[in-house]
Amino acid sequence: MKTVNDRPRNLQQEIGKLTSFSFPEQEASLNLARTHALISREFNLLFKEHGISDPQYNALHIVAAAGRDGVLSETIGSRMVTHDPDTTRLIDQLEKADLVRRNRSTEDRRCVFVSITPPGRRLLLRVKKKVHDLHRRQLGHLGRKQLEQLSCLLFRVRHP
């Protein structure tokens, strides 16, 4: 029977790697990948229960935050947490599900604004608390100071 002391203390033990990592950057990178896989798997399941994907939730959240007038469709892609190369397809899917609508600008027909629909707003309200609860369940044990340190370090990884 396993005890608390049997828990892995590092990635090497967790994945059963018999030799050390070649260099610390490799271990850190693989730790990030493993952590991302664990966190995103739970979010993907949550969003799937509500008939959307993680990128669709992110886009819907961006559109809702833009307010009543909506947001330019090209702006959605730049604000996404994770890069999605086909924002147009993403918006198409949300529009087909009646979660957003497109409105062409009367001043410049090339500009398309995307706004949230009432069903889209209701979906966000249903999912938002579950998303917050999942964030807290996954990371709340770290405490505020450690979370701030983690966020700072991750930002520095992206912006050397």
Describe this structure in words.
- This protein is mainly α and 160 residues long.
- The chain has one domain: Winged helix-like DNA-binding domain superfamily/Winged helix DNA-binding domain (Arc Repressor Mutant, subunit A).
- Helix content is 61%, strand content 8%.
- It has a three-stranded antiparallel sheet.
- 13% of the residues are buried.
- The mean pLDDT is 90.
Compact summary:
With 160 residues, this protein is mainly alpha-helical. The chain has helices at 11-14, 24-49, 54-65, 73-79, 87-96, 118-139, 143-158, and strands spanning 71-72, 100-104, 112-116.
List the helices and strands and how they pair.
Layout: H1 11-14, H2 24-49, H3 54-65, E1 71-72, H4 73-79, H5 87-96, E2 100-104, E3 112-116, H6 118-139, H7 143-158
Distance between the termini: 44 Å
* CATH class category: Mainly Alpha
Instruction: Look at the structure and give the mean pLDDT.
Output: 90
Helix content: 55-70%
**CATH H-tier superfamily:** Winged helix-like DNA-binding domain superfamily/Winged helix DNA-binding domain
Structural class, from secondary structure content? mainly alpha
Unreliable spans: none
According to DSSP, the number of beta strands is 3
**Tally of discrete structural domains:** 1
Shape: elongated
Q: Rg from C-alpha positions?
A: 20 Å
